[in-house]
Amino acid sequence: MLNLSSSLRERYNHSSSRLPKNLHIFSHKMGAKKSAAKDRGYVTATEWKLDGGGKKNASVNAPLKKLPFNCCALSFLPFETPVFDVNSGAIYDLENIFPYALKHKQDPITGRNMQIKDLKELKLKKSEGNKDFTYECPILGSEFTDSTKICVVKRSGTV
After folding, report:
1. What is the pLDDT of residues 16-25, one digit of tens each?
2. What angle (nearest 5°) sits at the alpha carbon of residue 91, between those of residues 87 and 92?
3. What domains, with CATH codes, occur in the chain?
4. What is the pTM of this model?
């Protein structure tokens, strides 16, 4: 039996002799029953949290900002006499990290044991002519920025 309207035959240019006898064309979509069964008259807590409104975790949404290279990792202030931890590679100001290391005997970033002998002086070259304490590469002479990758010789502390 063929359930095909005359307008559909004309639209698709099918003649009744070419179509199979068991072809049925219906106007409803397949799978409509499944999607209708999932429609709810309410919004779940997960949908509310992810899609619209609701409490969001502050730690997930807050991007981590990178500390500028010329700031102490303990006080977040620009350093006067930079030193670095040999184990973690973090840069500190000597005036801030020395009392902290004597009192707590651990690295403030990683929490590992830290001794005074783990700190080495960082030898940076200051830019000439600038009064605002900028540092430059001793080989290239280019000024360091926050996105510059800096390599330090572990034994001597030179950049």
Report:
1. 555 555 555 5
2. 110
3. 67-159 (3.30.40.10)
4. 0.56
